[in-house]
Structure formats: C-alpha cells, structure tokens
Amino acid sequence: MEWPGRSAASLGYCSCHVCSLVSRPQADEYPPRCPRCGTRLHLRYPDSLQRCWALLIASYILYIPANLMTMMETGTLISYRKDTIMSGVIHLWQSGNPGIAVIVFVASILVPLFKLLVLTLLLLSVRRGSTWKIRTRIQLYRIVELVGRWSMLDIFVLTILAALVQIQTMATVRAGTASIAFGMVVVLTMFAAMVFDPRLMWDPLRKRTGHE
Amino acid sequence: MNVQQRPLIACPQCDLLLREIELPPNGAACCCCCGATLYRNRPDSINRSLALALAAALFYGIANTFPIIGINLQGSGNAVTLLQAVHDLWNQGMHLVASLTFITSILVPALELGLLLYLLLPLYLGKVPVGVSPIMRLLQAIKPWGMVEVFMLGVLVSLVKLVQDFRIIPGVALWSFGILTLLLAALASSFNPRDIWLQLDKDRDGVID
Known about the structure:
The complex is a heterodimer.
Chain A: E1 14-15, E2 22-23, H1 48-68, E3 72-76, E4 80-83, H2 85-94, H3 98-127, H4 134-147, H5 153-164, E5 166-167, E6 171-175, H6 178-195, H7 203-208
Antiparallel strand pairs in A: 1-2, 3-4, 3-6, 5-6
Helix pairs in contact in A: 1-3, 1-6, 2-3, 3-4, 3-6
Chain B: E1 8-10, E2 17-19, E3 28-30, E4 37-40, H1 45-65, E5 69-73, E6 76-80, H2 82-91, H3 95-124, H4 132-142, H5 148-162, E7 167-170, H6 172-190, H7 193-205
C-alpha cells in the first residue's frame, strides 16, 4: 500500500494525546508542552519499544505459574478440589455448563495468550521495519486494546466466590497462588498495550514509499 | 470555512496530518489511511452526559451499599456487598487480588463519575471549572481501569457456579450493577472530550491576555 500524505512528525507538528490539538513545538522550549492543555508532547511515546518488551517478557514469565498453579480451592463436607484455570474450565464443562466454560476459557486462556502473541508480533515487525500487512496488524492492535480488560473476569469470579462461600465447615472457597500471577499478567499486558505506539508501525512505510 | 483555515488534526494511530471537516450529528471522522476514529460529533453531549452521570452515581451508590448475592445451604447462609467481598479477600491474605477488584470496580468508577460531575455540572451552568486540563488527563489515564462491565459478567459467571450447590438470593445490588453497566456504556458513548476543549477555546477567545 501507499502512504497517502504527510505525517505530522515530518512537518514538525506534534499532536497532544489528551486534547488532540496539533501544534509545532518551539526549539527553545524543553520539554515541549501542549499550548492548550499543558500536557507533555512527544512525537512518539518515549522508549515505547523497550518498555513494551520489558512488560511483555515479565508477562510471559508470569503466564507460566498463572496456568500451572492452583487458581481456586473448593472444599465441602464430602469433597475437596484444587483447580488450575484449565481444570476449572473442564470441570465447568463436565458439570453441565458448556456456555460458561467457553466464556471463562476465552477470557482467561485465549485472550491473554492472544495478547502476548500479537504484541510479540507487533514488536518484532516494528523492529524489522516491516511494511507487511500493515492494515491487518493495526486491526490486531485495536483488538488487543479492546479485549484486554475482559481477562479480569476470573479475578472477579474468584473475589465473589472466595468472599461468599464461607459457610463454617460445610463449604469454603479459597483463592490460590495462581490468582496473583494471573492478575499480574492481565495488568502487565494492559500496560504493554498502552505503551506501544502504533505510529511506529507506519514509519517504515513512509520511508519505503519515499514520501519522507 | 475555507479548507486551508480549518484546524489541523493528526491521526493518533498512524500520524497522518489532516484537516478537520464538518460532521453531521452523531457522525464520526475516521482516518483515511488506517481507519482510526479521529473525533465524533455528539449533539447535546454535555447535557446528556450530565444526566447519565447523575443517574450512574445514584445506581453506583445503591450497588455498593447493598449485598450483591446471598447464598443459603441447609439453613446457614452468607451475603456480601462488594466492599465486604474485597475486605474478606484481603483478610484471607490475597492482597493483590483484593486490590485489583477494589481499584477496577470500586475506586476507578467512583473517581470517573466524580470527576465527570465536577466537569459537567459547571459547564451545564455556563461556567468553566478550575483545573480542566489535569482532570481530563486523569480521566484519560484511569479510563482503561474502570471495569464495571467485566465485573458484571464475573457476577453472572459466579451465579452459574453457585446455583448448583446453593440456594441463591439475588440482592438489590445485583440489579443495580446491571443498570450501572448500561448507564456507564451510554455515558461513554455520549461524553465527548472534544466538546469540553471547544468550550474552553470559546471561553478563552473572549478573554484578552
């Protein structure tokens, strides 16, 4: 595809990410600030790629205990079980709730994995200066931003169940260690998506088509 | 207005420099290169957002005062409000999980509604509140962390899990959370930060400094 015009950065313009006013920072003004709302201006988010990599690698590491350790302990008079995220989903499926099992599977397993893989793909493609399928990649970025929050579902289910199911010795639910790692994965991947600057994806296209 | 005199706008996702165009009511301007939404035209945005924010604040109050769900098993039972749930989890030693729930479903929604009311109420009365810029910055920063709609889905999933073993007593807060979710979605769609900035520009133009 072709780049259709000029980028703000190439003409020395900077847009404010809070009030979206476009202004031209003066050379003697440091750090440059938006003339309307006073927000610090950046042509691109500072250290976007490094920060994103750091958050992403931490998320990958935490993703392992989040999936292997116990998410929830359920005890009743006659039974006791420890569930990881996946075994909880299987248990839901087998106990006659396939719909809810699918929702939990998507929110707790698919969405975090999708976010990790897509952000890795985006970072690698920006690093290589790739212009490959740029429209598809920006769509993937938007999906990551949109669905990220829904992973918090399991944390909320856990909060409600662990607080509510405390009936002396008859029934108790406790949150497991995996919930800490899982919560961190959700928060860190959300931060990673926030610090990634999508404008970096278009810079190689501008250079290649020779407009700037 | 001549095209050359219209204000500049840069796409936040691909940095293409464009000139603003007039929009029909409820229209949205999209970047012609990457398709990102640039800005929207919401008729009567301040009035509608204020009404929705007031209603949401009311239901937020109800949703946080009364129990969400109660359960009953052979005569013994338990019922918790959201804050109690967070408190219980904290006492069980799950500090991180408790904090996450507290921030995303209690603190951020309250802060968001409070700040919006602080902005919209004076604007509705024709005044400009003090500190618009820092408040707009804060609103933008906390926005991704308000997760009432995800919490609502979490409550529904919990209900399905609980219904097998317990008798469920749905609380007032359950319905309030449902309504709050809808109101917050409507508020997010009607609140238009652009209108606040345009209002601010208009007020500044009248002042000679």
